[in-house]
Design brief:
It is built from 20 helices and 15 strands. It is elongated, with a radius of gyration of 38 Å. Bound molecules: adenosine-5'-triphosphate (ATP) and magnesium ion.
Length: about 525
């Protein structure tokens, strides 16, 4: 064999392996390979067809010397034309003159203008004994180069291409897996750390979810209604996250946390010297929220004068800082929340009717957990999973304890469940949550299990708190849930106010209750 030819072929192989060694993009790499072939070996046109995923058709994946249109036409069924025949049989094909070969479909219509005599060589691309594609080349006929030689050489190239395609598929598959895992992880991170995740399968919560996705992308103000702990703050955050302003700030203001004039300055800002203590000018939260969302929690506690200013902002998106006449325009969306009965407050003159109607254009009511018992189980498993992850042990709940948790009315709603589940995770022994782990007030609130489980011999009664302590604990928790208002805690526990007062004294917590209550009042 001609030594110059061998040298040229070796050089081509060397270049091909160096292209494939660096490339990641399948099509581009194959095109570079084909262009090396054509330049170095007088090959005019070349194509690599690969079997599609379903394995039925060969499709051009890379070509040299073909226009995009010609390439697009290059799709062959197995057995169709020369390319399809090579694919089906796995045998190479050689012809000294393309124009004389009746089997050529000339499907790409790229050969019509050729005057020169073109030889055709096609070889299968094989991987692990399976044909995965076809490499074809039209080359200027050269009497010095035998068919065997062409086939031998292109078979080597086809083999390298096969390995490369395989590698590429592996990388793609791994990338797909990584991408899937990444999305999954992001979701988990968001659920675990950000909690921007609403759980619930009840019809009521499905409706809430629907309303959220409908209203979020709009500019509409939203009023979130529901008892404490039902998820209003969470929903506000999700509305922001799903809105077009998700990249903007989410500013949370609790209207019950500051007295009137301080709240006004907090929201709308002030100029220097506008009130005693205003040593420097300060932008308010509305200005900070430009391009984002302001979440006004406990909106019912906003003083009437300030309600007027808020109404003006809702209508015209403008306001003045305290002590300033300069009007500021801000693009902020308002989401408000309350656990109070606003219509009753409007009737009593404690809340402006016009503001109420303005906010109530899009109300979302989140029902208390006891009215959607279908959500209890899935929420319990959510908090179990989360605490398992947080505390690094896999938590499980014994059937009897599970029954109690499912039957409990959860007066403090999801927040109460979240707190109790965390407490149970801490109290559990080896991750097992049993009847003994549950606080007593859960037992008494739920119906008793059909058969009281006999205590295991080693769960010594001495380790359990005394009845007296348990009752005290139950009382304290009810008071805490009811913001230390004795009448409300009594109602929750189903005892009279007199009985409550009696117990508070008996347990020596009367001072504590007073103290907590006044702390709370001082804060709001
Ligand atoms: N459907 C839910 N899925 C998952 N977590 C929830 C759900 N509802 C509430 N939570 C979680 O329960 C806790 C209490 O919810 P959130 O603070 O939103 O209640 P709230 O209605 O704003 O209460 P409050 O009126 O006291 O402000 C939060 O940690 C929240 O993430
Ligand atoms: Mg809240």
């Amino acid at each position: 064999m001609d030594s110059r030819l061998i040298e040229a072929e070796l050089q081509v192989l060397h270049e091909i392996s160096s292209i494939l060694g660096k490339a990641l993009d399948l099509q581009r790499a194959l095109e570079m390979v084909l262009s090396v072939l054509s330049e170095k070996l007088a090959m005019k046109r070349a194509t690599v067809t690969l079997l599609d995923k379903a394995g039925g058709r060969l499709q051009i994946r890379a070509s040299h010397g073909l226009s995009a249109e010609e390439r697009g036409r290059g799709v062959y069924q197995m057995g169709e034309g020369v390319t399809g025949e090579i694919g089906r049989s796995g045998q190479p094909f050689w012809s000294p003159d393309v124009s004389l070969e009746p089997k050529f479909l000339n499907k790409t219509q790229s050969r019509r203008l050729d005057k020169e005599k073109l030889a055709f060589v096609g070889v299968p691309v094989v991987l692990r004994g399976q044909v995965i594609g076809v490499l074809t080349v039209d080359r200027l006929f050269d009497a010095d180069v035998s068919a065997e030689e062409d086939i031998r050489f292109l078979s080597i190239v086809a083999q390298i291409i096969g390995q490369f395609v395989h590698l590429n598929q592996e990388v793609e598959a791994r990338e797909r897996t990584l991408r899937r895992q990444n999305i999954q992880l992001k979701r988990e991170v968001s659920a675990t750390y950000n909690d921007f995740f609403i759980i619930g399968r009840s019809e009521a919560m499905k409706r809430v979810q629907q309303m959220i996705s409908r209203v979020a992308p709009s500019m509409a103000s939203v009023l979130l209604l529901g008892e404490s702990g039902t998820g209003k703050t969470l929903v506000a955050r999700i509305i922001h996250e799903l809105s077009l302003r998700a990249e903007g700030p989410f500013i949370k203001v609790n209207c019950a946390a500051l007295p009137g004039n301080l709240l006004e300055s907090e929201l709308f800002g002030h100029e220097k010297g506008s009130f005693t203590g205003a040593h420097a000018a300060r932008a308010g939260r509305f200005e900070e929220a430009d391009g984002g969302t302001v979440f006004l929690d406990e909106i019912a506690e906003m003083p009437l004068e300030l309600q007027a200013k808020l109404l003006r902002f809702l209508q015209d998106k403008e306001f003045e800082r305290l002590g300033s006449s300069r009007t500021i325009k801000v693009d902020a969306r308002i989401v408000a929340a309350t656990n109070r009965e606003l219509p009753a407050m409007v009737d009593a003159g404690a809340f402006r009717a016009d503001l109420y109607y303005r906010l109530n254009v899009f109300p979302i009511y989140i029902p208390p957990l006891r009215q959607r018992p279908q959500d209890i189980e899935i929420l319990l498993s959510h908090f179990l999973d989360r605490n398992s992850a947080n505390y690094g042990q896999s938590l499980s709940v014994e059937p009897a304890a599970r029954r109690v948790l499912l039957d409990y009315p959860w007066p403090g709603n999801v927040r109460e469940m979240q707190n109790i589940m965390e407490r149970l995770a801490i109290m559990s022994e080896n991750g097992r949550i049993t009847m003994e782990t549950l606080p007593l007030f859960l037992h008494s609130a739920a119906s008793p299990p059909p058969q009281a489980p006999s205590p295991a011999p080693d769960s010594a009664a001495s380790g359990r708190p005394k009845l007296w302590e348990m009752e005290k604990d139950q009382l304290l928790q009810a008071l805490e849930r009811n913001r230390w208002v004795q009448s409300r805690a009594a109602a929750e526990l189903g005892i009279t106010l007199r009985q409550m007062g009696h117990r508070v004294k008996k347990f020596g917590i009367d001072k504590l209750v007073k103290q907590r209550r006044s702390q709370l009042l001082g804060k709001s």
